[in-house]
Amino acid sequence: MTDTTIMPPQVRPRASQPLQLSVIVPTFNERDNVATLFHRIDKALPGVVWEAIFVDDNSPDGTWDVVRQLSHDDPRARCVRRIGRRGLSGACIEGILASSAPCVAVIDADLQHDETQLAKMLGLIERGEAELVVGSRYVEGGSADSFNRQRLGASQFATALAKRALGVAIADPMSGFFMIRRDKFEQIAPQLSIQGFKILLDIVATARGELRTIEIPYTFGARLHGESKLDSMVALDFLGLVLAKLTNDTVSLRFLLFAMVGSIGLIVHLAALYLALEAFHLAFAEAQAIGALTAMTSNFLLNNFLTYRDQRLKGFGILRGLLLFYLVCGVGLMANVGVAFSVYDQEPIWWLAGAAGALMGVVWNYAMSGLFVWRKR
Ligand code: GDD
Ligand code: MN
């Protein structure tokens, strides 16, 4: 019997040739697509030593189970199953960091990207001609045939905006199909955002022109099975990424949304107060309390729907979250009044004191809501 674990490293037999390429496949509800993709990649990479890492966010359709079976039959397939988390960019980053080949590619599971380009992409990187190769719909020879008019327009608008705002030079920074040298990726990985859909845009914007890039054309095909996970709200994710990159991560879209919801809350408060006074003839103190309660409730719902839509509370969690939110805002109100009071004490300018108090309140509410109400599970 031979036990390789006690052999010194230099005589330990290698399992195989050194790995050349890790292909990262983010998946969410793709059970009918993963095996087909795996076999197509295999066909597209003759003579290449590769592995595929599927990063699945605990898909309700059990994609991870299909991948596990695939992996059992062929160890070149591996599954990273994430529980309690969602997000395309985060999944890609985690998959790349869990892999080990000197080159890594990211490709969608739904066969909309063209896996037959992988060999060409690998060649360009291995020969040192590029550090990043992008599968592009918007260079000569590429296309997005399967897009409807509306989606094409939105995609082109976002592309133009990203190029302008972030100084990104490539034709298709919104592509989700690319290959990059591992060492280059690891250098910028700590600065990447795990939220949102646009990992390539993030990589290119973060690298600030430092990556030698080649774009190769491909045709964005039609999805084989299942449906797209992009909803209309991804526009928000996109704006968030542009904002974060423009301001060096100092301004977060989440905070702006939270503050915006807070301003809407003020209007709701005044409307409820007016109604309670005029229509229901309540005493002012009662009417004011009803106004505050209504505003907090609507703020909570709006934040749950918009600001924290990626961590949206559901079912019983909504009730628990609402009660915690009342608590957070209650303390925030005291902080607000306290700060306003002491500013007014120093400098009796009503609007300055009021604004200082309100700022204190929103920062407190934001920080504490993130910690206690929509905390990461
Ligand atoms: N792990 C994980 N978590 N995977 C996800 C998630 C998620 O939250 N959301 C989507 N995916 C996976 C899908 O299963 C699919 O393999 C891939 O990411 C792309 O998602 P689709 O839902 O198919 O998106 P699309 O076809 O609308 O968008 C594609 O085209 C865009 C270009 O217009 C993506 O490739 C985008 O990256 C690309 O920018
Ligand atoms: Mn797709």
Structure overview:
This protein has 2 domains: 16-244, Spore Coat Polysaccharide Biosynthesis Protein SpsA, Chain A; 253-373. The chain has a 7-stranded mixed β-sheet. The chain is 51% helix and 10% strand. The longest helix is centred in the last third of the chain and has 31 residues, at 316-346. The model has no long low-confidence stretch (mean pLDDT 88). Strand 1 (21-27), helix 1 (34-44) and strand 2 form a beta-alpha-beta unit. It contains 12 helices and 7 strands. It is elongated and about 80 Å long. With 377 residues, the chain is of the alpha/beta class. The chain binds guanosine-5'-diphosphate-alpha-D-mannose and manganese (II) ion (MN). Guanosine-5'-diphosphate-alpha-D-mannose binds at residues 26-28, 30, 55-57, 86-88, 91, 108-110, 112, 155, 174-176, 197, 228-230.
Question: What's this model, at a glance?
Answer:
The chain is an alpha/beta fold. It has helices at about 35-45, 65-75, 90-95, 120-125, 150-165, 180-190, 200-205, 235-245, 255-280, 285-305, 315-345, 350-375, and strands spanning about 20-25, 50-55, 75-80, 105, 130-135, 180, 215. Strand 2 (about 50-55), helix 2 and strand 3 (about 75-80) form a beta-alpha-beta unit.
